[in-house]
Structure to design on (438 residues):
């Protein structure tokens, strides 16, 4: 009897954990992975796509004046270290859009630790990084196959002990 | 030779990451059904809703079919959804580590997590059945990436050994990548082995003389042995090559040189 109870318990545990481990299948998709609809809690209403039906997902086509080195230098120049940031080592992956007028918007961010697991960082650091990303003005929208486009891209900011790590 | 190498690299990368032949699975089996759904999915633009829904369908019908997870994950990585991409790709790796571990290592490299990149590649190359794998673009052997990743963590010696072992394993010159010796030379310069760096760059120039950075590192190597005249000449060559629109763009270089770096090196020579 006791043995049977053990078996029942084991099967129940397997079932429960099995369910928890099963992969979350995303049920809803935008037209393209990365399409970022307007969210009034995050986005400024004055950012508009020139043609929201043809926003490119080709990150290499969105350039920064002076190239990636100039981009990194701008990030480092704008970054103001605070002692409490020292607790953070990890990555900020910031996705955003550049419209055909070279304006930016629809910023979204993933914060990851050094093992690429989702994590948190001091709130003021998070806000500071996001505001730096939003303040960059030297973006060039995609020019693809002879036409101007809106587009999405992302930047990856690596940090060690609260300092930006150069590429 | 370049053409031959390109074809070999292209074929190799295609072999690693391309379409799976669905006919190898028993007709009506979950794998066969999943495979055929994936074949349908990749006819749609990458990252499109239509393709993602078909991958989900494939995963539902054949949850052990690794290729579906791999293909589904690709646009997430390319578009900055790292967490989501990893969650999906990890399933492919769980099912077929030999096939997909290098792909995760590649994205760790791309997102500058050298610790995790090294971890995956060391695991991969310790597998008895590990075979030669390339970056998705086919331009670099993943052992070159491993060597560069060691260098990124400051372990130049191990990086040099890894790249040398990779180069020595090739049967003929046709197997060399367009920037293998270049990558080796960078690490020699970083490790202050200037004579070896000069030798490596000379070999690089015989294979591909169109990487601007090669001349910059050659200049640094000459500077290391106090030959300022030759260093200046090479820095000037680097500037010329940087302005050559037909130059070879060394994808996944790891250590990129910008015009401002070369100008700075030239200015330092004047002082």
């Amino acid at each position: 009897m006791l043995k049977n109870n053990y078996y029942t318990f084991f099967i129940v545990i397997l079932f429960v954990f099995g369910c928890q481990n099963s992969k979350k299948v995303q049920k809803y998709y935008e037209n393209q992975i990365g399409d970022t609809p307007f969210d009034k809690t995050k986005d400024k209403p004055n950012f508009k796509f020139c043609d929201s039906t043809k926003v490119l997902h080709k990150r290499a086509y969105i350039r920064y004046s002076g190239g990636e080195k100039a981009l990194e230098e701008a990030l480092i120049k704008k970054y103001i270290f605070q002692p409490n940031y020292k607790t953070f080592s990890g990555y900020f992956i910031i996705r955003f859009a550049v419209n055909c007028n070279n304006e930016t918007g629809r910023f979204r961010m993933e914060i990851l630790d050094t093992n690429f697991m989702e994590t948190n960082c001091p709130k003021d650091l998070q806000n500071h990084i996001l505001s730096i990303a939003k303040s960059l003005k030297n973006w060039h929208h995609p020019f693809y196959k002879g036409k101007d486009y809106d587009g999405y891209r992302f930047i990856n900011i690596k940090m060690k002990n609260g300092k930006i790590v150069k590429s | 030779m370049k053409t031959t190498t390109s074809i070999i690299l292209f074929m190799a990368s295609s072999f690693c990451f391309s379409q799976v032949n669905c006919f190898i699975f028993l007709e009506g089996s979950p794998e066969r059904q999943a495979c055929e759904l994936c074949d349908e999915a990749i006819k749609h633009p990458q990252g499109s809703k239509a393709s993602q829904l078909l991958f989900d369908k494939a995963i539902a019908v054949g949850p052990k079919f690794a290729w579906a997870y791999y293909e589904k994950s690709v646009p997430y990585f390319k578009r900055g959804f790292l967490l989501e991409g990893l969650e999906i790709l990890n399933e492919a790796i769980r099912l077929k580590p030999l096939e997909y571990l290098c792909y995760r290592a590649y994205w760790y490299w791309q997102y500058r997590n050298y610790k995790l990149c090294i971890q995956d590649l060391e695991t991969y190359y310790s597998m008895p059945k590990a075979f030669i794998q390339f970056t998705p673009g086919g331009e670099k052997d993943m052992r070159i990436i491993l060597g560069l990743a060691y260098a990124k963590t400051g372990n130049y010696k191990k990086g040099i050994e890894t790249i040398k072992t990779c180069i020595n394993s090739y049967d003929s010159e046709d197997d060399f990548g367009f920037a293998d010796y270049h990558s080796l030379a960078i690490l020699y310069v970083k490790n202050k082995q200037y004579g070896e760096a000069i030798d490596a760059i000379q070999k690089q120039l015989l294979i591909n003389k169109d990487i601007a950075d090669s001349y910059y590192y050659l200049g640094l190597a000459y500077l290391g042995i106090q030959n300022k005249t030759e260093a200046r000449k090479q820095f000037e060559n680097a500037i010329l090559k940087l302005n050559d629109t037909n130059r070879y763009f060394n994808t996944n270089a790891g250590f990129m040189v910008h015009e401002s770096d070369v100008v700075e090196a030239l200015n330092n020579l004047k002082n």
